[in-house]
TrEMBL record:
Domain of life the protein comes from: Bacteria
This protein's name: Pyoverdine biosynthesis protein PvcA
Cross-referenced InterPro entries: Isocyanide_synthase_DIT1
Source organism per UniProt: Streptomyces chrestomyceticus JCM 4735
Region Disordered, annotated ranges: 1-21, 43-73
Biased composition regions of type Basic and acidic residues, renumbered to the chain: 62-71
PANTHER family with a match to the protein in the record: SPORE WALL MATURATION PROTEIN DIT1
Pfam families: DIT1_PvcA
Length: 354
């Protein structure tokens, strides 16, 4: 029995029993097709740096690149359940992504404190992904960027004014480019009438786990330890004006890393409270069976590199790669104003054009 989406919707409204198996099968079909659109862009834990899960042959392990794609019922049960709920209710799929916080404060990594081509390419990718879901599932999809800059801005030493400017420029970029599938949500949308410091304190009070619980989880190893180490690395790199010893910096960043992780998780809990039914995405690599789906925004040499910790280098026609600014300056020339280039162009491309 062939069933159109319109018939599927009508069947749900009529509440008829006849053909329920066929309609249930169609629900599964839509659910599977939506997951298939996400899989090529997956950022799996344990994959080689800069790679996505392309569905190719992988190692026979939970972290094998590509291998997870062949057992979606096991590795993506959480995502299938989330997607299935929207399809069964015939609602647009809502994707939530805590990301786009602010630019790194380290000028060796970024070209300024405002969004540039890296953010624009990432936003276009996310909007195109939602449009691809629209093409196979009529109610479509929407993506909510849950900007987390104000959540831990004091811990990463970025002024709230810079985070505000970044967020406004990001929203302007979304509007100017007609990225109609994307909305934003931030700490400025909650705890009305409070300062950012007060909002951060309330976030911890209402949603954060204890420091002791987090420390125990990190000591146990696994994803928590990996995330903790990655956060320390970022904090060390981004403390460009440190005048003490390297050992002192490491100790100071280890302490701040627990604060960043604790608030990041609290932010996730707040998002879940305000948006109870979502497909939860993450810019961090995620293992098989995770509640979140790790998604790669742009090609990068480092699995932890993001547009707000790097600049974009054009390496070919419609080919772009994230690099730290000091690396980009060795292989390319700036495009746009020298005081704040939008991206870099690989030297060999400039030579070929000349």
């Amino acid at each position: 029995m062939t069933v159109t989406y319109e018939q599927h919707a009508e069947r749900g409204e009529q509440g008829e029993d006849e053909g329920e198996a066929a309609f249930a099968a169609l629900t599964e079909q839509y659910t599977a097709r939506i997951l298939e659109l996400l899989l090529p862009h997956r950022r799996p834990a344990g994959a080689p740096a800069g790679t996505r899960d392309d569905g190719g042959d992988g190692a026979d392990s939970a972290e094998g690149r590509g291998h997870d794609s062949h057992r979606p019922g096991q590795c993506f049960a959480e995502q299938l359940t989330q997607i299935r709920g929207f399809v069964a209710r015939r609602e647009p799929v809502l994707l939530t992504l805590p990301a786009f916080p602010c630019k790194s404060p380290n000028p060796a990594k970024v070209a300024g404190h405002l969004p540039d081509l890296g953010e624009l390419l990432s936003l276009r990718f996310l909007d195109d992904l939602c449009a691809a879901i629209d093409a196979v599932y009529p109610p479509g999809a929407r993506l909510l960027i849950c900007s987390d800059g104000h959540v831990f801005g004091d811990l990463i030493r970025v002024p709230d004014a810079h985070i505000d400017a970044y967020g406004k420029a990001l929203r302007d970029m979304i509007d100017a480019n007609g990225l109609r599938h994307i909305d934003t949500f931030g700490l400025d949308h909650v705890y009305d009438g409070r300062s950012y410091d007060e909002k951060r304190a309330l976030l911890e009070k209402d949603y954060a786990q204890s420091v002791e619980e987090l420390r125990a989880e990190v000591r146990a190893g696994g994803p928590a330890l990996s995330h903790y180490r990655g956060t320390i690395r970022f904090l060390v790199e981004d403390t460009a004006d440190w005048t003490g010893s390297k050992a002192q910096l490491q100790r100071e960043c280890r302490s701040r890393a627990y604060g960043v992780l604790r608030r990041s998780r609290a932010w996730g809990e707040l998002i879940a409270h305000h948006y109870r039914q979502t497909v939860r995405l993450s810019i961090h690599p995620q293992a098989c069976g995770s509640a979140k789906f790790g998604i790669a925004l742009l090609e990068a040499a480092d699995n932890w590199l993001t547009p707000w910790h790097a600049v974009v280098v054009q390496t070919g026609t419609d080919r772009f790669r994230l690099m730290k600014r000091h690396e980009a300056e060795r292989v390319g020339i700036p495009a746009g104003p020298s005081w704040r280039p939008s991206h870099y162009i690989a030297s060999e491309l400039v030579g070929a054009a000349g």
